[in-house]
Amino acid sequence: MNILGIETSCDETSAAVLSDGTVRSNVVSSQRCHTDFGGVVPELASREHERLIVSIVEAAITEANIAKNDLDVIAATAGPGLIGAVMVGLCFAEGLAWALGKPFVPVNHVEAHIFSPFISDEPGHKSPDGDFVSLTVSGGHTLLSVVRQTLEYEVIGRTIDDAAGEAFDKTGKMLGLGYPAGPEIDRLASNGDPKFHRFPRALTSSSQTSKSYRGNFDFSFSGLKTSVRTWLSRHEPDYAKQHLADLAASIQAAIVSVLVEKTIAAALLHKVSAVSIAGGVSANSGLRTAMQTACDKHDLDLFIPKATYSTDNAAMIATMAQLMMERDRYRENTYGIAPFARFSAAGKGAR
Ligand code: KG4
Ligand code: ZN
């Protein structure tokens, strides 16, 4: 079975082909037009998707060495995301499915991130075979979920203000870095001192009245933002510049320690034997290393998609469609689905 996946929810235009569960191609074009604006400009994103969608889909099909008519299923992100951006991929995918007379599967972008440990591009790929705790951290979402093989999942924690990726991007912007700042902070942090300044770690065990995590796996990153702003206002710009790497390392340490602490606590409380991290921030090398160390300590298996499958990509959309079809969570010919902007924490599982 050949599934074409299409992803256009934010600033990546992507198409992928999955053949019998294995990724044959995954073409991703990251939009550069937003760099000077310090964030994604929705209107520009939609226009760029429209400009690129045909050539990206064509490239994915060519790379997979198949013809359009060999496609059995067309899948696309239906949300959450920027509505105009989502609509470009969704309309294109529906139109293509209709023209080819093939089934169309709408996919929830966040669910595709949650289930991204199942993306396989080589024989013997190992994915979770029991319940696991997923930390899904991107520019728009920070979710902690308990995930089951049936594709059901329960969201047990989420951010009450900024997403983890936003925490990287917004503090990075204060340091004068371009958008998105996450990868740049990651790079700078490798040469910096994470103990240079202790930025706040909100809603962690020491900052909560109860020592127990029961009932509170939520995240908050707005205090970190304020704290970085305050630090910068109290120090000379030259001094901050000299210590750019130290500041990056200290910011990264604050974000990473909260993410790791809560994920491990959730895994222990829910008695799962595996943890996964997904979404753009899971590309962060500090997070990867710290989570691996913590998982080793608690004898938990850790699943992290390859970096190309951590940030937005269409392989995860095609994989999610495959899982939905295998597990009977898909309605035949779901044409006319309304694109949606927000992730409603239904948490009841993929449709
Ligand atoms: O999943 P994603 O590609 O798009 C969304 O759905 O939001 O995530 C993008 C986010 C951005 O905030 C970006 O700064 C962050 O992921 N990111 C990183 C790294 N690579 C991407 N943050 C920290 N370290 C990285 N290496
Ligand atoms: Zn994403």
From TrEMBL:
The keyword tRNA processing applies. Substrate binds at residues 136-140, 169, 182, 186, 284. The keyword Iron applies. Gene3D superfamilies: 3.30.420.40. One of its GO terms (cellular component) is cytoplasm. It holds the Pfam family TsaD. Its cofactor is Fe(2+). Keywords: Acyltransferase, Cytoplasm, Iron, Metal-binding, Transferase, tRNA processing. It comes from the Bacteria. Fe cation binds at residues 109, 113, 312. It is an enzyme of class 2 (transferase). Binds 1 Fe(2+) ion per subunit. It catalyses: L-threonylcarbamoyladenylate + adenosine(37) in tRNA = N(6)-L-threonylcarbamoyladenosine(37) in tRNA + AMP + H(+). Residues 23-318 form the Gcp-like domain. It is found in: Cytoplasm. GO terms for biological process: tRNA threonylcarbamoyladenosine modification. InterPro entries: ATPase_NBD (IPR043129), Gcp-like_dom (IPR000905), KAE1/TsaD (IPR017861), TsaD (IPR022450). GO terms for molecular function: iron ion binding; tRNA N(6)-L-threonylcarbamoyladenine synthase activity. Coiled coil: none annotated. Required for the formation of a threonylcarbamoyl group on adenosine at position 37 (t(6)A37) in tRNAs that read codons beginning with adenine. Is involved in the transfer of the threonylcarbamoyl moiety of threonylcarbamoyl-AMP (TC-AMP) to the N6 group of A37, together with TsaE and TsaB. TsaD likely plays a direct catalytic role in this reaction. NCBIfam families: gcp_kae1 (TIGR00329), T6A_TsaD_YgjD (TIGR03723). HAMAP family: TsaD. PANTHER family: TRNA N6-ADENOSINE THREONYLCARBAMOYLTRANSFERASE, TRNA N6-ADENOSINE THREONYLCARBAMOYLTRANSFERASE, MITOCHONDRIAL. This is tRNA N6-adenosine threonylcarbamoyltransferase.
